[in-house]
Automatic annotation (TrEMBL):
<dbReference type="GO" id="GO:0003700">
    <property type="term" value="F:DNA-binding transcription factor activity"/>
</dbReference>
<dbReference type="InterPro" id="IPR001647">
    <property type="entry name" value="HTH_TetR"/>
</dbReference>
<dbReference type="InterPro" id="IPR009057">
    <property type="entry name" value="Homeodomain-like_sf"/>
</dbReference>
<dbReference type="GO" id="GO:0045892">
    <property type="term" value="P:negative regulation of DNA-templated transcription"/>
</dbReference>
<dbReference type="Pfam" id="PF08362">
    <property type="entry name" value="TetR_C_3"/>
</dbReference>
<dbReference type="InterPro" id="IPR036271">
    <property type="entry name" value="Tet_transcr_reg_TetR-rel_C_sf"/>
</dbReference>
<feature type="domain" description="HTH tetR-type">
    <location>
        <begin position="14"/>
        <end position="74"/>
    </location>
</feature>
<feature type="DNA-binding region" description="H-T-H motif">
    <location>
        <begin position="37"/>
        <end position="56"/>
    </location>
</feature>
<dbReference type="InterPro" id="IPR050109">
    <property type="entry name" value="HTH-type_TetR-like_transc_reg"/>
</dbReference>
<dbReference type="InterPro" id="IPR013573">
    <property type="entry name" value="Tscrpt_reg_YcdC_C"/>
</dbReference>
<dbReference type="GO" id="GO:0000976">
    <property type="term" value="F:transcription cis-regulatory region binding"/>
</dbReference>
<keyword id="KW-0238">DNA-binding</keyword>
<protein>
    <submittedName>
        <fullName>HTH-type transcriptional regulator RutR</fullName>
    </submittedName>
</protein>
<dbReference type="Pfam" id="PF00440">
    <property type="entry name" value="TetR_N"/>
</dbReference>
Length: 205
């Protein structure tokens, strides 16, 4: 017999699910995956343990769902790259969006980075499929602009990697960056003009 489609979540169910993921983010960010427990997640979410297990079968299920949600969020600005837009401005909009996400969601960025450093055990299928497809699409757009002489020619995949590295560094190594800069500095405000100048110089034709 074919599997029945799951009915959409009610507003209350979606609210509870979001509470669990928010609580899980707090717990995983401080205790790591191995140190986190369902009890801790339930307490952080303000729900009972049975209530948490009603929405998610296990800690692993919560972790994978959280990471998948985060990956969707990270990839959204890349999906918005418009092949009909002005090439340099499309790239700069992507850089600014990634930097702003690092500013607004530092815990999420660090959690995702930690998962990758562990070999991405919860994201293997996604990284080899959906992520690659989206990155390849963006790289194809970038290569097309370069072939048209509208951007300076560089390897498009490594251009994307560099944007990830330079923007997410400010979230993943926030303590180090602030220690080096010292009091009175806002790393994200100061990084914006630097990255803008860097990529405009690199890609301008």
């Amino acid at each position: 017999m074919a599997d029945q489609l799951q009915p959409p979540l009610t507003r209350i169910q979606q609210k509870n699910r979001d509470r669990i993921l928010k609580g899980a983010l707090s717990v995983f960010s401080t205790s790591g995956f191995r140190g986190a427990t369902i009890d801790q997640i339930a307490e952080a979410a303000g729900l009972s343990k049975p209530n948490v297990l009603y929405y998610f079968a296990s800690k692993d299920d919560i972790h994978k769902s959280l990471l998948t949600t985060l990956l969707d969020m990270w990839l959204a600005p890349m999906i918005r790259i418009n092949p009909e837009g002005e090439p340099l401005e499309e790239v700069m909009a992507y850089v600014r969006a990634k930097l702003e996400m690092s500013r607004r969601f530092p815990r999420e960025s660090r959690l995702f980075a930690y998962e990758i450093l562990q070999g991405a055990p919860h994201l293997t299928e996604i990284l080899g499929g959906g992520l690659r497809d989206i990155v390849d699409r963006a790289a194809t757009i970038l290569q097309g602009w370069m072939d048209q002489g509208r951007l300076s020619p560089v390897d498009p995949h490594h251009l994307i990697f560099s944007i990830w590295a330079l923007t997410q560094h400010y979230a993943d190594f926030d303590v180090q960056v602030r220690a080096v800069l010292g009091p009175g500095h806002d790393p994200f405000v100061e990084a914006g003009p630097f990255l803008d100048n860097l990529y405009r110089t690199m890609l301008h034709v």
